[in-house]
Structure formats: structure tokens, C-alpha cells
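Hi U.,

Before I forget, here's the chain from the pilot set. I'm dumping it here mostly so it's searchable later in email.
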Amino acid sequence: MRILQFFSIMALLFSAGCEKQKDARHLAKINVQLGWQVNANSAGQIVALEKGYYREVGLDVELFPGGLNNPSIQAVASGSVDVGFANSPDLIVKARDAGAPLKILAVIHQQSYHGFFAREDSGIKCPKDWEGKRIGVKFGSPTYLYYQAICRKLKIDRKLIKEVPIKYGLIPFLNGDLDVYPGALTNEKIAIEKEGIKLRVIKPSDYGISTWGNVVFTSELAISNRGQDLKKFVQATIRGWKFCLSQNHEEEVLEFLKKHSSKIDIEKERIALRETVKLVSSKEIGTVDTEELSDIIEQLKESGLISESMTTDQLLIKEQW
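Structure:
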């Protein structure tokens, strides 16, 4: 009798495994690169993956971490991934100007989460105070584009600034080797303040620099070949972010983040998640404001960061999702 039960259980397990493999074969594979490592800024994508939203619309999604050494712009442009998240639309505009056939699909963070941090007692109150100071610059980061745009707009002589090339890491600022650190309000700012340092924050928007945070983008080739899959991906991602908006779901979201990045500081990400939700929910998630995008293009052109005039039509698909 026990032998019969054993074989019955094994048959059920084998059948379930076959069904799972069969389901997987019917899912469309989508490779996605994040704009950074897994943290609160990628919460919606992680939720959509863990809650099964992608699978529900027929997608087998794999998320890959990004960063300064692994930029999503290059990954999508080269075709190594289908979809990317960029920490700023400026990066896509600049890449498009350089010849990369990229298109914006949706805007997740309707406001930028980047800024420039100085100690509160440093005497640095505005960008003009950067003259004579040591400013960290991150090549490949949106902050470098904002830095250039601010200096150009306010007619700040960059020759009077000591620009210090840096990568990700707070040690130069914490040790006092930098006067200004460029970073994310939802990441580095929180980490610095946890060290007991009071900060003064300069945001690009304080000086008329329009921009957003995370945007979803892809290539023209992917749009031609996989338009419906991309549409489903965007819709499922938006659903994931809508789940994040409720504080009742906060603990579950944090658990998902911890599952995908065991080294994250949960309490730091809790603060970051609450700040991120404010930026995401300021408009309907996914909305692309064409007037703001025009402003972004124009300020990049005025700053000399792109060489040619560009229209929003060149950066957007015809159908808004």
C-alpha cells in the first residue's frame, strides 16, 4: 500500500513539473537591466516579478543589476537585453544624440531623486558657492549632466571648481576629501545622514532644471519585433508600482527586496521606499509629459551636451501606454 502511495505521489510531482515546464515554454522571455543595484528604486519591478504579474501576462522576466560599471544604456543599445531602466531621461537623450536608437516607454519616477550634498556647516548654500570647492563628479551618472547644466545656466566658471572624479562610495565625502557629493536622495543622502551628518541639499529643480527619475526604455528594433510583449511588460511593471504605493504593503515589499539583495539595510530601504513612493505617485505612473521632455531636450542642447535638435517624437513611441 505504501509503495502505491509513493508512486502516486511521484506521478503527481512529475506531472506538476511537466506542467511547469510547459507553462515556461509558453512564456515570452524578456531580459531587463535595472539602472542600479536592487534597492527601493526598483521595488515595483521586484514586486511585479515576485507577485507573478509578469507571468500573468505571459512573460518570463529576468532582472539584471545595473550601475556605473554596467550601464543599462549600453546593454539595451547593444541588444544584450530587451528593456532597461535609466536613472534619468537625460541619459537616453544623450545616447540618442550619439546615434543609439533608443525610445522611452514610460516614466516611473515623475520627479528626479538626484541632488548635490554638502555639510550644513560648510557654507555652501547654492551652486555659486561651488567655486573654490572640491566637487565630486560621477561620469556616466545623471548627476554629471545636471552639474554641467547648472554651471552653464548660472554661468559658473568650472575652472574655479576642483572637480574630483569619483565612483560610487561615500568614503571621500565622509573623510572630508570632498565638499560636495553628487548622489541620490533615496540612497546616499539617507546613508550619510545615518552617520549623524547634517546636510544641505541642492536639487536640479531648484534652479529650473527639469528632469525625472527612473524611466523605462528600449530599442527601436525591440519595438518592431516585440511591441506587444513590451506593452505587457510596462503594464505589469506599473501594476507592481501601484502595489508599492500602499503602506499596508511596505513589509512585504521590503521582504521582496531583501530576497533579491541580502546585503541591503532594511531600515535604510524603508526610509528610501517611503521617499520613492512620493516621487512615483506625484502623477499617474507611466505618464510621459511631452512638454517636460521638450524642456529636458532643450536644456541639454543649451548646455552643449547634445549636438543636434531633437523632437519628442524621436524619443517616444506613437502609442502611449
